[in-house]
Amino acid sequence: MTTVSNLLLFIGLAMLAIAAGLNTYSGYASADPNSTPLFSSLWWTRWFPLYASGAALLLVGVVLRVSGRGR
Length: 71
Hints:
Blueprint: H1 2-29, H2 43-70
Helix pairs in contact: 1-2
């Protein structure tokens, strides 16, 4: 069970890091006046599923880790 919770925590953190990196990149890419916007200005419509699924994986990983220690 510890391996599963570690894997879920790692995947959740990786997803959040990727979403934050892409969100940051989209902010810098749109700052160039000669570039066409690569991403929508409504960041939450594009990135919310990635943030939400990353947070859900983190939550499940933490719950599994805490419940595994209580046994």
